[in-house]
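Long-time lurker, first post. I've been practising inverse folding by hand and with some scripts of my own, and I keep getting stuck on stretches where the structure tokens seem ambiguous. Below is the full token string for one chain I'm working on. Before anyone asks, I'm not after the true native sequence, just a reasonable design that respects the backbone. If someone could post their per-position residues I'd love to compare against what I wrote down in my notebook.
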């Protein structure tokens, strides 16, 4: 049987490399069997007869990838943004996340999150849920229905949080096993479980050891937080005096890349050894610039990560970040890199539009395999952007139009979105 083929027409843009865009004006983007077949200025004869959707002047870009977002925090975005990380966790995060023991509340909250994520330009995301198994499975069911491609984690926490949300060590491990079995048993097409120890201060060494066992048994990826904030880092030094750097508090348990595909959010203060080990072990970094500003964490040396060839994507980190919008994350990445260059370290040049776009597409997409690009063989995730509301007297080339769309949320409309070759209902 011939694999299903369809074709989109428009102004096609993707990252040729970290520093360069590839632009095909008024061209055909061909999808075959859920993968990118190719891009053509003139459609070859053999591809005639397949359905074509002509998006006219619209921009067609790879779906955006959010490497770090907290679904239960969606309800309090924009609140407590005058606090620092640890105070904000105590004041806003833990009390709100505790409410997800109530499945009805979880359903009403996750409905809003899922609906808005579906409407956004995001096609893939790494998502934190809460410690609660039933609510996490509910979130996975809801995300699966959207057609988005996600990795979702039941959070683990067995220390340093209020009693009402703290798990016992055994309980945390056994609930995780039950959750993984349930999730795998549901045979989702687009939704995968990802191990989610919240961060070192929340997880005892004993729990980390148990999580390693679960990681190996079920061959799971892992997401967590790393070197985000000075008070957090000082706390990890106290809790794990044996660790020479924060990353070792995961690495010691085999939960820091290598055999365990890992994405770590933030890495604002990662030092030489931590960077070296992340590179060696292919740990992905989720750079979350808006969150890093909002909870006074700092500005990560992203230029250095990119130059050294580390894997870097962008994360919204809602509710540290106020919005799930990954265009905003691109703009924030560029803006904060300029402040870092100006105020902190002029040896690291500011990020370019090309680099921010790369991180939001292919850079993060690689955590999912071949995603985030229109190179042949990549999974067909595409977003069709209508920028016609933004009026301009002068002619603008396609790159300039994309650049403006990154900054002007009010003038941007998502006309269509495809994930793995399937159109998403917006
Ligand atoms: N570190 C541990 N938990 C969290 C969280 O929920 N958000 C952020 N930004 N950092 C964290
Ligand atoms: Fe986070």
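-- Answer (accepted) --
I ran through it position by position. Result:
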């Amino acid at each position: 049987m011939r694999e299903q083929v369809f074709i989109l027409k428009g102004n096609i843009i993707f990252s040729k490399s970290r520093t360069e865009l590839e632009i095909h004006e008024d061209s055909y983007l061909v999808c075959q069997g859920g993968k990118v077949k190719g891009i053509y200025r003139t459609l070859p004869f053999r591809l005639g007869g397949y359905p074509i959707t002509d998006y006219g002047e619209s921009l067609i870009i790879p779906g955006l990838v959010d490497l770090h977002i907290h679904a239960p925090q969606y309800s309090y975005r924009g609140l407590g943004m005058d606090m620092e990380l640890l105070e904000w966790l105590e004041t806003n995060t833990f009390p709100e996340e505790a409410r997800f023991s109530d499945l009805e509340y979880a359903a009403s909250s996750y409905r809003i999150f899922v609906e808005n994520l579906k409407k956004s330009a995001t096609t893939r995301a790494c998502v934190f849920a809460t410690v609660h198994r039933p609510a996490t499975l509910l979130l996975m069911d809801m995300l699966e229905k959207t057609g988005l491609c996600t990795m979702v984690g039941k959070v683990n926490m067995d220390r340093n949080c209020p009693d009402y949300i703290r798990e016992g060590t055994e309980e945390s491990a056994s609930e995780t096993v039950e959750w993984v079995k349930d999730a795998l048993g549901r045979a989702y097409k687009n939704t995968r479980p990802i191990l989610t120890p919240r961060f070192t201060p929340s997880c005892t060494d004993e729990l980390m050891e148990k999580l390693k066992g679960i990681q190996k048994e079920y061959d799971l990826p892992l997401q967590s937080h790393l070197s985000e904030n000075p008070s957090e880092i000082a706390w990890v030094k106290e809790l794990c005096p044996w660790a020479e750097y924060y990353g070792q508090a995961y690495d010691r348990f085999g939960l820091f890349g290598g055999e365990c595909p890992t994405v770590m959010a933030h890495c604002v203060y990662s030092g030489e050894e931590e960077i070296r080990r992340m590179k060696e072990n292919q740990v992905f970094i989720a750079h979350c610039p808006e969150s890093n500003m909002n909870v006074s964490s700092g500005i990560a040396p992203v230029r250095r990560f990119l130059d050294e060839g580390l894997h870097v994507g962008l994360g919204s980190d809602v509710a540290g970040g106020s919005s799930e919008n990954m265009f905003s994350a691109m703009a924030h990445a560029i803006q904060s890199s300029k402040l870092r260059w100006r105020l902190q370290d002029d040896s690291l040049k500011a990020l370019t539009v090309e680099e921010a776009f790369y991180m939001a597409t292919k850079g993060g997409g690689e955590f999912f395999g071949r995603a985030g690009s229109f190179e042949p063989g990549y999974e067909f995730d595409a977003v069709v952007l209508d920028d016609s509301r933004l009026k301009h007297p002068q002619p603008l080339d396609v790159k300039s139009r994309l650049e403006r769309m990154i900054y002007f949320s009010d003038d941007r409309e998502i006309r269509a979105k495809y994930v793995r070759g399937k159109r998403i209902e917006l």
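A couple of notes from the structure itself: The chain has a mean pLDDT of 97. The CA atoms of residues 9 and 54 lie 5 Å apart. Happy to go over any region you disagree with.
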